[in-house]
Amino acid sequence: MDRTILEFLKNHREDYVSGEAMSRHMGVSRTAVWKHIKELKKRGYQIESSSRKGYRLLGEPDLFTSDELSLGMPTRYLGKNVICFETIGSTNNYIKEHADQLPEGTLLVSEEQKTGRGRLGREWTSPSGKGIWMSLLLKPEISPQEAPKITQIAAAALIETVKGLYGLDVKVKWPNDIVINGKKVCGILTEMGAELDRVNHIVLGIGVNANIDAFSGELADKATSLKIETGHSLDRKEFLFYFLKELELLLDRFFEEGDFESSLNICRNHSAVIGRKVWINPKEGFVEVLATGINDDGELVVQYEDGRVKTVLSGEVSIRAENGYI
Ligand code: BTN
Fold it and tell me: Which of 5, 23, 193, 314 has its CA 20 to 30 A from that of 220?
């Protein structure tokens, strides 16, 4: 019932809606409507009540709830099944554990993660209400070798979102770090369940440092947030919806038309590493090379000092830049 009332208020945002109209629409008494409005207010919705004109929705809480997310979800399949937690260990772990029972496109968002994971076994700091900590379940018909492409498609969608919403100069530190002013703002952790020749599922985990005020310790030089970069708090739901729409568009192009190029070009045009000296970490230890490009399969092309050219896969490398993080 709260959801129906919420939907009604959202659909009539510009006007007041009378208690009478709502009670008719919902088939309940005006007192019942009033009680539900009171409940919504308790949950943080700002609703103006006027005895003459009725009710008007003025503001919504900055909370990820399945009502909030499912009511405005602008996509065809991504996030159509949405699960929200206040706290969890890791959203990726949950989706991995339940992948067989959950439909393709399932989105899990948690306000907080207690044991959020980054790549290479690193920890991912996920404070409550300050970020977008999410995992998406995909069940594409692709080979395991193609799975790293999903990371780059997600990186492209993140770039389009940060540029489209805030006009910031955003880059991708191949393959999975989104950076602004040389500091990391989003990370991507793509994991898969697969057989030798076929993917069963992919868990696309994404962390967005949205409204974090400051970083301390070793993160201070390496991490930033959209709030720090824009100078104001942002609407996390707006970010999430924009991102999911971009991602769905780019995934559709890839899965339906075989077009990976669109995503690649976004990553190439916003690369933080192409044309720069970086260190790769093959078995023999850190070696300085020049990153010369990203090939059509999404692999980084590097040139050694002696002129040898090689491509590196995301799993094999960690890239360090000349000074500090990037
Ligand atoms: C990285 O940059 O190393 C990847 C960071 C990925 C973090 C996200 S937050 C949501 C999802 N759940 C996790 O445990 N990790 C990913």
Answer: 314
